[in-house]
Amino acid sequence: MKNFAAVCLILLAAVNAPRSAEAQKRCECGPERFEARIGQLNGLVYNGTAIAQLNNIEGAIDFTQGRTGLEIHSYQMNYVTKLKIITDVKGNYTYTIMGGACTKTPAMSIGSACLPKEASFAGTYYFGDRELYLDSFSYYGGEKGTIEGNYSVSVAQDSCVPVSVTIYGKTLQEPSLPIVSNSGYTEFRYGIRDPERWFDVPDICKKVALKGVKEASRNDKSGVKLASLIHSLIKPTH
Fold it and tell me: Which of 4-8, 111-115, 149-153 holds the top average pLDDT?
């Protein structure tokens, strides 16, 4: 549960005074290829009932090749869901693997390594005794058919490595739900050391026919709806 602790720490961080305009521009773009652990805590409201969801994620993001690979343990009440997502934008596919079954849908958006032009600098804060300085940026954005809302993105001041993504908004899936989400990045590593683990398509997926996201989402056992939501919430940009 160390990812959960990282999320809580990031949510409690305080914002200090902004830096100069020159320094504010330094982190417009972050690393293009990396592996990381991501702890994600989501709060949703469904039919008037508050729902908490904790997602522990290991994965790789390659903006240069348009690929993501994520292995996820999703905790909600007494249930644990395990799934894997493989996305290749150039090949226009996303594979969602859950419970020994594989579903193929058109590629999910993976965004870019750069913040959108409308992102504004929100301030600087630090962890520990001034041991890690972070810059925070905010903007309104989202991903078509999945999520939209107010984004707050924090990155390490010196390296532009993503540290947290906080979103206050709503899901665009059916039904649309209010949501607050925080994703905290830990154990960040530049480059992708094990591309086969993250991006190789397993045998159970190689003969699977392509389905539309709405069609695939009608089957709860496919995991597509959950995978699409988690995938859209971890990214600093869209």
Answer: 149-153
Amino acid at 110: I
H-only helix segments in the chain: 2-12, 21-24, 195-199, 213-217, 224-233
Does residue 198 surpass a pLDDT of 70?
yes
Q: Tell me which long-range contacts 174-179 makes (C-beta under 8 A, separation of at least 24).
A: 175/46, 177/44, 177/45, 177/46, 178/44, 178/45, 179/42, 179/43, 179/44, 179/147, 179/149
The order of strands in the sheet holding 33-46 is: 101-105, 93-98, 79-88, 67-76, 49-62, 33-46, 178-190, 162-171, 147-156, 132-143, 120-127
**Signed CA dihedral, 136, 138, 143, 148: sign only:** positive
Task: Select the CATH number that applies to the domain covering 29-233 from these four: 2.50.20.10, 1.10.10.10, 3.20.20.70, 3.40.47.10.
Answer: 2.50.20.10
Average the pLDDT over 176-203 and give the result. 96
Q: How confident is the model at residue 225 (pLDDT cuts 50, 70, 90)?
A: confident
Dist CA 86 CA 165 (whole Å):
21
Q: How far is 81 from 135, CA to CA, in rounded Å?
A: 34
Specify the pTM.
0.86
The residue among 6 and 235 whose pLDDT is bigger is 235
8 Å CB contact between 238 and 142? yes
